[in-house]
């Protein structure tokens, strides 16, 4: 019997999000076509880009190599938060107050946008407002957490240092951010995909783009040699695959981490948590068949730098078991996400040489 069976963790990786709702399917691209905007990649970046353009009246064509949401979006943690670990003190020190303020404001604007869209369209996607905490486990981390709280004060972030957290784990206080949220991204994106199609947008699955021709009107060239030409092209493929320009392979550092969803003895106290040190322990709750489960993530590593990935699941299991007592683990999965050199996502023109080609990547989870 494998170790994981002994711990009652499923043998197979399966995403709770993808299992929670049936998503529409789309045909593969069989002929050349022309559009206003070509979007490569059907994760949250590609779908939101297509949605925002479609509702403004642009003709969009979304091309996905596998199934929509089969990339990192289908295997995320889905905290909707401007608190990304400890980042604001770093931004103030290294990028200055203008950038730190913009970073916060852009993230808050995104959360408000999602919240308003959910309300306006009545999207049932398990959205709930939550506090987000980064907690310290030793004195060194406490110092960093206090520096982060001071950065919150300087930027005007709603939150600050607190001496203890609602979670029953050893901690020396935390920095809390108020009015953050969590949701189910697959449930959220489904009606948006339906609206893209209703507005005349075209979606193709099982259609991999292998090359980009960066003419005045850029062209996505698929593996089968079909061409999709547009006024603009947006690369939302998570890791930018086109490497003749931009050199993203040298500027992104991908990190893989592990998640389990567990039914537990102890009740979850609410809130979204991550520790300030390593290995990371990220926590939130999810709903399954009327029960509240703990969704825990962590034990990440640089992609390809760990052979025994089962060990990461086991360590995660031990942490959740110690904290809450595990009854059952219905889901486990892993995913990777790239970080940029300055920790700020790359969103904008693909390179100075590609005027009408754009990219969105490097969200650092
Ligand atoms: C473990 C983990 C936890 C996370 N937790 C959070 C969180 O709590 N909150 C948060 O905001 N973010 C979180 N993130 C980050 C977030 O989930 C990702 O940054 C986000 O989902 C990336 O979305 P995307 O659309 O850019 O990429 P993806 O979802 O990966 O979508 C890219 C799509 O492009 C397709 N594709 C790739 N190459 C091609 C090609 N050549 N042609 C056509 N299609 C192609 C892929 O098949 C894929 O479907 C987390 C990430 C990880 C790994």
State the gist of this model.
The chain is an alpha/beta fold. The chain contains eight helices and 17 strands. Among the domains are: 25-76 and 187-250 and 343-361, FAD/NAD(P)-binding domain (3-Layer(bba) Sandwich), CATH 3.50.50.60; 82-182, no CATH class.
Task: Please give a structural write-up.
The chain is an alpha/beta fold. Among the domains are: 25-76 and 187-250 and 343-361, FAD/NAD(P)-binding domain; 82-182, no CATH class. It contains 8 helices and 17 strands. The strands form 2 sheets. Strands 3, 4, 5, 6, 11, 12, 13, 14 and 15 form a 9-stranded mixed β-sheet that branches. The longest helix has 25 residues, at 97-121. The mean pLDDT is 95. Bound molecules: flavin-adenine dinucleotide. Residues 40-46, 63-66, 70-73, 76-79, 208-209, 236-238, 241, 257, 259, 297, 335-337, 363, 365 line the site of flavin-adenine dinucleotide.
């Amino acid at each position: 019997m494998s170790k994981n069976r002994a711990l009652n963790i499923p043998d197979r990786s399966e995403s709770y999000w993808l299992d929670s709702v049936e998503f529409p399917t789309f045909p593969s691209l069989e002929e050349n076509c022309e559009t206003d905007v070509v979007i490569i990649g059907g994760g949250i970046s590609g779908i939101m880009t297509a949605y925002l353009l479609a509702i403004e009246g642009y003709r969009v064509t979304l091309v996905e190599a596998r199934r929509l949401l089969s990339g990192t979006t289908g295997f995320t943690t889905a905290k909707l938060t401007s608190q990304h670990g400890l980042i604001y003190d770093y931004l103030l020190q290294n990028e200055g107050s203008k950038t730190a303020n913009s970073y916060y404001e852009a993230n808050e604007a995104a959360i408000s946008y999602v919240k308003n869209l959910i309300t306006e369209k009545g999207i049932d996607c398990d959205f709930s407002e939550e506090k987000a905490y980064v907690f310290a486990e030793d004195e060194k981390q406490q110092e960093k957490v206090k520096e982060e709280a001071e950065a919150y004060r300087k930027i005007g972030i709603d939150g600050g240092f607190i001496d203890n957290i609602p979670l029953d784990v050893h901690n020396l206080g935390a920095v809390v951010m108020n009015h953050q949220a969590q949701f189910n991204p697959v449930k959220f994106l489904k009606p948006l995909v339906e609206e893209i199609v209703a507005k005349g947008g075209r979606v193709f699955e099982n259609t991999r783009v292998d090359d980009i021709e960066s003419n005045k009107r850029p062209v996505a060239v698929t593996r089968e040699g079909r061409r999709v030409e547009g006024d603009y092209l947006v690369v939302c493929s998570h890791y930018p695959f086109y490497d003749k320009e931009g050199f993203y392979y040298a500027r992104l550092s991908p990190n893989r981490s592990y998640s389990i969803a567990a039914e537990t003895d102890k009740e979850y106290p609410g809130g979204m948590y991550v520790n300030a040190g390593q290995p990371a322990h990220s926590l939130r709750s999810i709903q399954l068949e009327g029960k509240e489960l703990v969704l825990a993530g962590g034990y990440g590593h640089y992609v390809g730098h760990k052979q025994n990935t089962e060990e990461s699941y086991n360590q995660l299991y031990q942490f959740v078991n110690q904290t809450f007592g595990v009854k059952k683990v219905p889901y486990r999965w892993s995913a990777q996400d790239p970080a940029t050199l300055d920790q700020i996502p790359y969103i904008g023109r693909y390179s100075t040489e590609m005027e009408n080609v754009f990219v969105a990547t490097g969200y650092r989870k």
